[in-house]
Amino acid sequence: MKEINLFENLKDDAFKIFNEFIEINPIGSIVLNEHYEIVYINEKMRRYFDGNLNLAKDLFGNIFRCSQVEGTNSNCGTIRQCKNCNLRNNVMESMEKKTVIRNILWSNNFTVDNEIVLKWFDITLVPMKIGEKQFLWASMIDLTELMNYKIEYEMTHILTDEERTQEKNKFHDAVMNCIKTNCHSGGTAYLVLIDLKIVSSIQEKFGSLWKNDYVASVYQYIKELLSSEELICHYSGDQFLLFLPCKGYDTLRKIVTAVNDYKSKIFNEEDRIVTRTIKAEVVTDYVTNVVNEDKLHLEYFKAISKLEQLEENSVYEVTV
Asked: For residue 180, what are the CA distances in angstroms to 184, 248, 280, 304?
């Protein structure tokens, strides 16, 4: 490889320090000349290629052992598939238009230890001129582990949607069974929909993975506040549904206060929750003194439908 010291003519100490910084920087750096040949690669990227750089050709795709050209005796940019390469197209645009292009999320199959593996990178391209020569500096962050984790999480989340539906169905069945067996005529039960208002801020700042972790931690926190006969389910992305059987409103206020006081170990912010509450008065049959199951089922799901439409922090009274 025709590796050169790009900064060899810069005698100032600041540039010598800069040269050393680039060499040992944990972010990979590769420099191309105007012919798209690699003329410099820093220590981070040399380690990445396991010392096999002497086996690679000088062109950009070849150094990455792109699977489109690997084993074909072809060079990067010489086969039909190269026209569809997002990275190559951005490299050419940055070099030709002399413009910085940031945050290129790029993936491709690479040959590693004779196996095809998918790699992800976040790349920034910076054109620069040293003397009369034109170069392109590619700053490369390997996102492969992060993206693999994200993909695995999202695949798990697809399964979780079905599990959440099952959880909600179990919750509804448990609530109606509790009303039938434990709530007498004139008793009061509460259905409470809780919204976590901080969630959108966390997603905006840190992304969905951290948001989901926060929601899970609050869910566990609320669950530990409840007694054995009180129920909770994860109703939607940032909503929980509580059932407080035959209890006073004080129980609900205690839970709301506790959640508002909750402080995450990671996010140094207090949540502000919004509640929507159905106050359900239980009515039993005058003769049998038991709850009419058909009427309970109908009124319960009417109440659930109404719950989602209530104003913030409001209470709606029904009979079941």
From this structure: 8, 18, 13, 17
Query: Do 270 and 255 form a contact (C-beta atoms < 8 A)?
Result: no
The dotted CATH code for 147-319 is 3.30.70.270
CATH topology of domain 13-142: Beta-Lactamase (3.30.450)
Contacts of 190 (CB under 8 A, 6+ apart): 242, 243, 244, 247, 249, 251, 252, 277, 278, 279, 280
Alpha-carbon span 153 to 116, nearest angstrom: 22
Q: Using 50, 70 and 90 to split pLDDT, how confident is the model at 3?
A: very low
Strands (E), 7-150: 28-33, 38-41, 101-112, 115-130, 133-142
CB atoms within 10 A of CB 8: 10
Q: pLDDT tens digits for 92-120? A: 999 999 999 998 888 777 666 677 777 78
- Do 255 and 165 meet the contact criterion of CB atoms below 8 Å apart? no
β-pairing, 239-244 vs 231-236, is: antiparallel
Distance CA 199, CA 208 (A): 9
Find the distance separating the first CA and the last CA of the chain, reported in whole Å. 80
Least confident of 27-31, 178-182, 229-233, 303-307: 178-182
Q: Is the model more confident about 258 or about 101?
A: 101
